[in-house]
Design a protein that fits this description.
This protein has helices at about 1-15, 20-25, 35-40, 45-55, and strands spanning about 75-80, 85-90, 95-105, 110, 120-125. With about 120 residues, the chain is an alpha+beta fold.
Length: about 120
């Protein structure tokens, strides 16, 4: 009887659509769109999804682009937290350097030890 139950479980799992399993593992599964689906999501994930459903972008996952950060005009890094992990690649062209990660904290400017670029965190709500 235990073998039969185990066989049924394996068979039931194997009948799941392969594309859904792959999508879930790759993080590209279909997003919830109904109010019932939304009930089970909380926090920033919910806020991000609600913004997306309105056609807005809450968190821009593209890298920041702009002028080189100086002491007087640092690169402003938006964050919903008091800190954020940031990566610097220097400038463009021959002034680029290897990707260098550091933690940026609210209230403190950070200087990249490789290229001297300044960064400052700005809280957003």
């Amino acid at each position: 009887e235990k073998q039969m139950l185990a066989r049924r479980a394996v068979t039931a799992f194997a009948r799941r659509p392969a594309t859904l399993v792959v999508a879930q593992r790759l993080g590209s599964a279909p997003k919830p769109t109904s109010a019932e689906d939304l009930e089970h999501i909380t926090g920033l994930s919910r806020a991000e999804l609600e913004a997306e459903m309105r056609g807005e972008t809450l968190f821009d996952r593209n890298g920041l682009k702009g002028p080189f950060g100086t002491r007087e005009k640092p690169v402003i890094v938006p964050s919903v937290n008091h800190f954020r992990a940031v990566a610097c690649t220097g400038s463009t062209g021959h002034d680029e350097h290897e990707l260098l990660w550091f933690n940026l904290f609210e209230g403190h400017k950070h200087i990249c030890p490789e290229c001297g670029q300044f960064f400052e965190l700005k809280r957003v709500e």
